[in-house]
Amino acid sequence: MTVIAAVLVAAAVALSGLLAVVGGGNAEVVRAQGTAELAALAAATAALGDHLAPCDAAAGVATRARQSLDECAMESRGHAIIEVRGDGMSQAVEARAGPAQYD
Length: 103
Hints:
By secondary structure, this protein is an alpha+beta fold.
């Protein structure tokens, strides 16, 4: 958890973006707004995907997340919410357009 949080915070600071991270059990929820934040989120998601991938089936998590994030950003003009969840056996990535809300 601390490794994931450190990667996300470092990416946000490096790009001077507003990035909020909420962790709950085996789920990581990341919300970002704006172009710089989306770039930071893509980088952080790649690292998060690697961390959550204990098996070969999960190797495509980061790629799917980035693709979904790109589509989501286009639909919502730069605003996106992405969720990455893993239970140790499988991972799911969901990205959707939505208002920027920070917890």
